[in-house]
Amino acid sequence: MRILSKKQVKELVLYSPQHISRLEKAQKFPKRIQLGPNRVGWLESEVLDWLRLRLESR
């Protein structure tokens, strides 16, 4: 299990942090994990699954 930082997610999906946040709120992107008071991350497997679904639906 690997946790991705906000920067790593941004580089992987090529969306701005603001857009990623909007997608999360619309339940169209994996939910973040609160790691500490000022730190969040995403499970790599969930983000990769999300990307796979996007590729399959094109």
From TrEMBL:
One of the Pfam families matching this protein, by short name: Phage_AlpA
Name of the protein this chain belongs to: AlpA family transcriptional regulator
